[in-house]
Amino acid sequence: MSQRLNQSFKQLTMSEERTFIAVKPDGVQRGLVSNIIGRFEQRGYKLVGIKLVQASQELLAQHYAEHVGKPFYPKMASFMASGPIVAMCWEGKNVVKQGRVMLGATNPADSAPGTIRGDFGIDLGRNICHGSDSVEAATREIGLWFKPEELINWESNSAKWIYE
Question: Which is catalytic among the residues 130, 131, 145, 156?
Answer without folding.
Answer: 130
